[in-house]
Inverse folding.
């Protein structure tokens, strides 16, 4: 079983959006190979409209170029990206997404895919938290079986 197949099996019923892309970082890539139902709900699209597209379809007027450039640099160098983007749903509604994207490597160390964990976050009112979450908090709490393994992998945590 490959890492990609394992992610597909575990992520299907997760509350957080999970997608797997190919390893092509430069335009027109990357291409979405898998997205779980929670990701479809997050972006307001049927999964059939998501698979085969680049995640760039969610970007819009208020998506910050500097954050996209940091995302691209991290993936190009084979590193994890953890950050926040303003994305857009199919109906044009914007939302703030927390994204934790990591390379999936083959046994020889070559990057085969990227896996991205995504959730909607809301801006905190008042002072930022002193913990790792800073000025954002999840819009919804996850209560699926993936929650424990996601914590073990430090998904959505600054490291």
């Amino acid at each position: 079983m490959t890492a990609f197949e394992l992610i597909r099996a575990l992520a299907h019923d997760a509350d957080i959006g999970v997608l797997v892309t190919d390893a092509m970082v430069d335009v027109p890539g990357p291409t979405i190979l898998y997205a779980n139902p929670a990701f479809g709900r997050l972006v307001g699209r049927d999964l059939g409209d998501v698979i085969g597209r680049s995640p760039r379809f969610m970007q819009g007027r208020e998506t910050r170029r500097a954050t996209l450039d940091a995302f691209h640099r991290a993936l190009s160098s084979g590193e994890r990206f953890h950050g926040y983007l303003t994305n857009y749903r199919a109906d044009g509604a914007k939302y703030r997404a927390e994204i934790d994207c990591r390379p999936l490597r083959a046994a020889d160390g070559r990057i085969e895919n990227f896996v991205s964990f995504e959730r909607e976050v809301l801006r905190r009112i008042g002072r930022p938290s002193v913990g790792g979450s800073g000025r954002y908090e999840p819009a919804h709490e996850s209560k699926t079986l993936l929650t424990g393994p996601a914590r073990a992998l430090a998904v959505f945590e600054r490291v």
User: Anything to note?
Assistant: The chain is about 25% helix and 30% strand. The mean pLDDT is 85. The longest strand covers residues 111-123.
